[in-house]
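Appendix C: a fully annotated inverse folding record. The material below is reproduced so that readers can follow the format used throughout the book. The structure is listed first as C-alpha cells, followed by the designed sequence.
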C-alpha cells in the first residue's frame, strides 16, 4: 500500500514538474506567442515520455496559454495589450479578496514570510540603474508575493484563478 502511494506521488511530481517547466518556457518567451510546438518536441527536450507532456498541454490549454490544433500540435496563445489590461483589472479584484482572506487566516510564520518577500521587493526596487535581470527578478518576486498571499487566504479556486491571470500577465511582460 505504501509503495503504491509513493509511486503515485512520483507520478504527480513528474507531471507537475513537466507542467511547470513547459509553462516557464511559454511565459518567458522561449516558446514565443504564436509558436507551434508538439508533444514529441517537448518530450525530447525535457527527456520524458509523451504522457506527462500531453497532460501538461491539457492543463495549459485550460489555462489559456496554448491552443490545441488536431494533428498539428499546439500553438502558444497570443496575449495583446487589451487582454493584458483586462486581465490586470480582474487581477486587482481577485487580489483584494485574496488579501482580505490572507489577513484573516495568516499565521505568524505566514506573516514573517510575507515580510521577507516584501523586503526583497523593496531591496530590488531600491537598486539604482537596475539591470534588466534585476528588473525581472523584482517582477518575479512581486508575482510570487501575490501567489503566496492568495495561497495563505485558503480559497483554492481564487488562488487558481489568480495564478492563471498572473501567468498571462507575466507572459505578456516577458514577450
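Designed amino acids, in order:
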Amino acid at each position: 500500500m505504501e509503495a503504491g502511494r509513493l509511486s503515485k506521488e512520483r507520478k504527480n511530481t513528474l507531471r507537475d514538474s513537466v507542467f511547470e517547466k513547459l509553462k516557464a518556457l511559454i511565459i518567458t518567451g522561449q516558446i514565443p506567442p504564436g509558436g507551434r510546438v508538439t508533444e514529441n518536441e517537448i518530450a525530447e527536450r525535457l527527456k520524458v515520455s509523451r504522457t506527462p507532456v500531453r497532460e501538461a498541454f491539457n492543463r495549459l490549454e485550460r489555462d489559456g496559454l496554448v491552443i490545441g490544433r488536431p494533428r498539428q500540435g499546439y500553438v502558444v496563445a497570443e496575449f495583446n495589450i487589451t487582454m493584458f489590461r483586462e486581465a490586470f483589472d480582474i487581477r486587482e479584484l481577485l487580489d483584494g479578496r485574496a488579501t482580505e482572506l490572507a489577513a484573516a487566516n495568516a499565521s505568524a510564520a505566514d506573516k514573517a514570510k510575507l515580510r521577507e518577500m516584501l523586503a526583497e521587493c523593496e531591496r530590488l526596487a531600491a537598486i539604482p540603474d537596475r539591470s534588466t535581470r534585476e528588473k525581472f527578478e523584482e517582477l518575479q518576486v512581486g508575482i510570487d508575493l501575490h501567489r503566496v498571499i492568495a495561497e495563505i487566504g485558503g480559497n483554492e479556486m481564487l488562488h487558481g484563478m489568480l495564478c492563471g491571470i498572473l501567468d498571462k500577465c507575466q507572459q505578456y511582460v516577458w514577450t
